[in-house]
Design a protein that fits this description.
Oligomer: single chain
Strand content: 25-35%
Subunit structure: Consists of at least two heavy chains and a number of intermediate and light chains. Interacts with BICD2. Interacts with CFAP45 and CFAP52. Interacts with CFAP53.
Strand order of the largest sheet: 3-32-31-30
GO biological process, one term: outer dynein arm assembly
GO cellular component, one term: outer dynein arm
Subcellular location: Cytoplasm, Cytoskeleton, Cilium axoneme
Distance between the termini: 158 Å
Pfam families: WD40
Length: 696
């Protein structure tokens, strides 16, 4: 058997050698696989005995598991995530101005990189390199497959003979066969490579915003012939009115007049519909434009006050201006008590040689670019006052001696009440007006003071103003001779006045001669007290909001004085080195007041901190020649408004040092409310009276 096996193998080798020239490579591989199977069979047959004698050896530390534990399956989830990839990478976001963690982490790990340069052998560059190196061009061989047939000895001999005879011919025709079968060429496994790369998919981002749905309203109506008829009648009536108005226009401007009247009629209805919406949009645009100022008004606090011991600063906010009022001076300022962002500005002139028109405008902090209300006046305005409980009523005093009352609810630009020569108007400029409580018949009334020496009470009765002279200011000891030698007292010129906050009948009047008279509504013939206050005209006199005895006055003689109405001499005197245009008490502290001077500076004092100097002295005008005329504190917000002689109104925010509140001491509880401010002022008064007692 072994010998036969060897001869068989030799024959097979010889046969294979004889047929190798003609038979394909697949046939040779088949014979080799058969030979391998025979060898494997002999080995497996011989190795049975060795397998029978093999024994399994169990390690001593092997666990003994039950059948249930052996059958239990443990699943492991394999992911494509790279365990070594960092998860805390941050990048700087220029949009949010901060470092933000990256949500997408690159999980791709590169194990092997080989940079090379491969060229296709049939490309032009490959041919150039072969020609340069002198290498022969390689000819691709085309593999052909021949169908396998059952082997027989005769067939084998014929194939061998054919191979001997025709082998040379087939080799000669190999080039021709390649050229004929180029169209059927398949992809070569040796010079073809497939390239692929994995790219990073950018994460999807969604951005959305939610808005409030617009208001909706259901409307339904039925249109019949009568309603259609009425509408046509209204249109016809409008056309007839337009024709009548067009006839009244002169012939030269006939065509222009017609067009204008038609445009006014058609546009008026549309404008009234859009006016409210346009005003809201205008405020929105302005608040976006001046957003930095709005943020400062609401949130900014000057941190540098911590490093200043007692001094404070003023932060400029909005600047209010109306183009048609550039040449007019700010002659009056007044905040609205009900709407804290609304204030009125009176415009006129203090140059009495250039008197002309005036204007009453209302501004809001929500819109600094254009006034909310505009009322042009034929004469310059010198003073105004807004009613505390009826914020739509405004009393105004004019240079020509008239007083008037405007109603903001009315669409008309004319006042609803105005004094005339028949109704007792003043003969000289009206310097101040003040609303008072309603009379016994619940009629509204206000008071006015003028250079003609009269303090007059005006009552709103139906459609007219009824006047009553409260007191006539006269100079003491000064008389003039009238007709037939009658001695007439010379009248003093009133320039300012103010009513007591608690005692209704008590009021103060400042005069052009520099004196201050304490008067009563009940006595019209004499003064309760006269103070020799200033050397020039008293520009303002005002009672303290908290303490009932204290009032303040200012004058063009450069001084500001604080008084106790029970004492004829001033308690404090401050020289500001320039004419003082106006002074105002703060609404939040009994010891804080502010004054403006003609050199463009604002002076703020706090007597509880410094009794001798201002804690803030700051220029607030752009040009040196600009003079400040008036100042007012907002009743709620920590801001002031300042007017100048060029028609500008500037708003300023007080720093924290200018609005300090008293600190509580250990073991002592301060009273709450206005009692705190009264206690502060009482303490100052007691300190001032101590030297007088010691000298006595």
């Amino acid at each position: 058997m072994p010998v036969a096996h060897k001869t068989g193998t030799v024959k097979s080798k010889q046969g294979s050698n004889a047929q190798s020239q003609k038979a394909p490579a697949a046939k040779a591989a088949k014979a080799a696989s058969k030979k391998k199977d025979e060898e494997d069979g002999t080995e497996t047959g011989e190795g049975d005995e060795w397998m029978q004698g093999k024994t399994l050896i169990k390690p001593p530390d092997q666990l003994d598991l039950t059948e249930a534990e052996l059958k239990e399956e443990f699943t492991r989830i394999l992911t494509a995530n790279n365990p070594h990839a960092p998860q805390n990478i941050v990048r700087y976001s220029f949009k949010e101005r901060s470092y933000k963690p990256i949500s997408s982490v690159d999980q791709l790990a590169v194990h092997f990189v080989l940079e090379g340069n491969l060229l296709h052998q049939d490309s032009d560059e490959a041919r150039r390199q072969r020609a340069k190196q002198g290498l022969p061009e390689e000819k691709a061989t085309v593999e052909t497959t021949v169908a396998e047939k059952p082997e027989t000895p005769a067939a084998g001999e014929e194939d061998a003979g054919d191979a001997e005879e025709g082998g040379g011919e087939e080799r000669a025709d190999s080039v021709e066969s390649k050229a004929g079968k180029k169209e059927q060429k398949i992809t070569n496994q040796f010079n073809f490579s497939e390239r692929a790369s994995q790219t990073l998919n950018n994460p999807l981002r969604e951005r959305g915003c939610q808005t409030e749905p617009p208001p909706r309203a259901n409307f339904s109506a039925t249109a019949n012939q009568w309603e259609i008829y009425d509408v046509y009648l209204e249109v016809l009536q409008k056309q007839e009115k337009n024709k009548e108005k067009a006839k009244a226009v002169p012939k030269k401007d006939d065509d222009k007049g017609k067009k204008k009247m038609m445009l006014v009629e058609t546009q008026s209805d549309d404008i009234t519909k859009v006016a409210k919406v346009a005003k809201i949009i205008e405020r929105m645009v302005n608040q976006n434009t001046f957003d930095d100022i709005a943020q400062d008004f609401k949130y900014f606090e000057d941190a540098s006050d911590e490093y200043r011991e007692q001094e404070g600063t003023l932060l400029p906010l909005w600047k209010f201006q109306y183009d048609k009022a550039k040449r007019l001076s700010v002659t009056a300022l007044c905040w609205n008590e009900s709407y804290k962002d609304l204030f009125a500005v009176g415009l006129g002139s203090y140059d009495f040689t250039k008197q002309g028109r005036g204007m009453l405008v209302f501004y809001s902090l929500k819109n600094s670019t254009f006034p909310e209300y505009i009322y042009p006046t034929p004469s310059g305005i010198l003073c105004l006052d807004i009613h505390k409980h009826l914020p739509y009523l405004v009393a105004v005093g004019f240079y020509d001696g008239c007083v008037a009352v405007y109603n903001l609810k009315e669409e008309s630009l004319q006042p609803i009440y105005k004094s005339t020569a028949k109704s007792g108007k003043h003969t000289d400029p009206v310097w101040q007006v003040k609303w008072q409580k309603d009379d016994m018949d619940n009629n509204h009334n206000f008071f006015s003071v003028s250079s003609d020496g009269r303090v007059v009470s005006w009552t709103l009765v139906k459609n007219e103003l009824v006047f009553t002279d409260i007191i006539k200011l006269s100079l003491e000891g000064a008389v003039s001779e009238g007709p037939e030698g009658v001695q007439l007292p010379i009248m003093a010129c009133g320039t300012s006045f103010d009513f007591h906050k608690q005692i209704e009948y008590l009021f103060l009047v400042g005069t052009e001669e520099g004196k201050i008279h304490k008067c009563s509504k009940a006595y019209s013939s004499q003064f309760l007290e006269t103070y020799n206050a200033h050397n020039m005209a008293v520009d303002a006199v005002k009672w303290n909001h908290f303490h009932t005895k204290v009032f303040i006055s200012c004058s063009s003689d450069w001084t500001v004085k604080i008084w106790d109405h029970t004492i004829r001499t001033p308690m404090f005197t401050f020289d500001l080195n320039a004419s003082v245009g106006d002074v105002a008490w703060s609404p939040y502290s009994s010891t804080v007041f502010a004054a403006v001077t003609t050199d463009g500076k604002v002076h703020i004092f706090d007597l509880s901190i410094n009794k001798y100097e201002a804690i803030c002295q700051q220029p607030v005008v752009a040009k040196k020649k600009t003079k400040l005329t008036h100042i007012e504190f907002n009743p709620v917000y920590p801001i002031i408004i300042v007017g100048d002689d060029r028609g500008y109104v500037t708003s300023l925010k007080l720093s924290p040092n200018l609005r300090k509140k008293p600190k509580e001491k250990k073991g002592q509880e301060l009273p709450k409310g206005p009692e705190v401010e009264i206690a502060k002022m009482e303490k100052l008064l007691s300190l001032l009276r101590e030297p007088e007692i010691s000298n006595a």
